[in-house]
Amino acid sequence: MTAAPPAHDYAALARDIKRWARELGFADAGIAGTDLGEDEGHLKRWLDDGLHGEMDYMARHGTKRSRPAELEPGTARVISVRMDYVPPGTRNAWDVLDHPEEGYVARYALGRDYHKLMRNRLQKLAERIHAQVGDFGYRAYVDSAPVLEKALARNAGMGWIGKHTVLINRRAGSYFFLGELYTDLPLPIDEPASAHCGTCRKCIDICPTQAIVAPYRLDARRCISYLTIELKGSIPEDLRAPMGNRIFGCDDCQLICPWNKFAQDAQEPDFAPRHSLDGARLVELFAWSEEEFLRRTEGMAIRRTGYEGWLRNIAVALGNAPSGDAIIAALQARADSPSDVVSEHVAWALRRHGAAA
């Protein structure tokens, strides 16, 4: 980072930054300091207990994740922003979950991948700041570096970390993305948000795989989002049936959260569902060729699971669906898949239906 600019009215600048952020399409913005000592302790214990599973990147960067100035030297403040992601007209989530012959995709992944979109908006925010104060040091992040984004957003006053480990805003629920602008500007820091989960434990009780092993403690190895996206290879057999028809991610802990009655509709048209993925039939999705998968998921977060993971996840969902000729035929058509991972899960699904490969 370059040296901070000469003295300015930083309180007024902070107000301007929040206004500019809203003008750029962010739902909210706040400013945090860089002290994450307590959160660093929580992260270390979580990693030491192996609850991150195969997500080695969570431990790869040492303390850079919890010490912003180590990741980006010169960082004095973090501007945290959020953007709502469920657009109006999206199919009701519970309705899809109640139709086991359809595939459930986490609501955040139905439209355009948010990473580039939010980074571009953060860059525009930085350009507005530059126009006001001149040269200053900054770096924009949207899931692109080791950043404790939820802790920073909490410290910036944008919500508290719920018992399911997701950030909750009392005026907007939890259906939003987060992004950060690390900066050397000595901006005034916002008051951290207070917690309002109380005695509620609905998120813990509803989790299909019981991945929330204690309040504020998630065992990623059991989480359906981890199993369907991050895990490469075979999904543990005892966790396949509880997955139901969830083929990419899981929203149950958010769907049940009382605070999401305040959730706000997304204002970004690019987040609208593509290819009817807010409730498409499993048999149709399972028939996609690799070329079709790559074409249809271009620019979408679903790409992250890869074609093999996509078929693996759908095979599990088909194994959990009600038996029928179409479902069994679809599975049998993939029984000799060149992928050992896919064929293994197809064989498991066929056994669930009492059918032969």
Automatic annotation (TrEMBL):
Keywords tagged on the record: 4Fe-4S, Cobalamin, Cobalt, Cytoplasm, Iron, Iron-sulfur, Metal-binding, Oxidoreductase, Queuosine biosynthesis, tRNA processing
Alphabetized InterPro entries for the sequence: 4Fe4S_Fe-S-bd, 4Fe4S_Fe_S_CS, QueG, QueG_DUF1730
Textual note on the cofactor: Binds 2 [4Fe-4S] clusters per monomer.
Keyword Cytoplasm: yes
GO molecular function, one term: 4 iron, 4 sulfur cluster binding
Residues that coordinate or bind cob(II)alamin: R65, D143, L167, L178, S225, C250, D251
List of residues binding [4Fe-4S] cluster 1: C197, C200, C203, C257
Enzyme class at the top of the EC tree: oxidoreductase
Domain 4Fe-4S ferredoxin-type residue range list: 185-217
GO annotation (BP), single: tRNA queuosine(34) biosynthetic process
A single Gene Ontology CC term: cytoplasm
Gene3D superfamilies: 3.30.70.20
Cofactor requirements of the protein: cob(II)alamin; [4Fe-4S] cluster
SUPFAM superfamilies: 4Fe-4S ferredoxins
Pfam family, one: QueG_DUF1730
Residues that hold tRNA according to the record: K232
EC number: 1.17.99.6
Catalytic activity from the UniProt record: epoxyqueuosine(34) in tRNA + AH2 = queuosine(34) in tRNA + A + H2O
Subcellular location: Cytoplasm
Family per record: Belongs to the QueG family.
PANTHER family: EPOXYQUEUOSINE REDUCTASE
Subunit structure: Monomer.
Function: Catalyzes the conversion of epoxyqueuosine (oQ) to queuosine (Q), which is a hypermodified base found in the wobble positions of tRNA(Asp), tRNA(Asn), tRNA(His) and tRNA(Tyr).
UniProt name for this protein: Epoxyqueuosine reductase
Lineage: Bacteria, Pseudomonadati, Pseudomonadota, Gammaproteobacteria, Lysobacterales
Underlying gene: queG
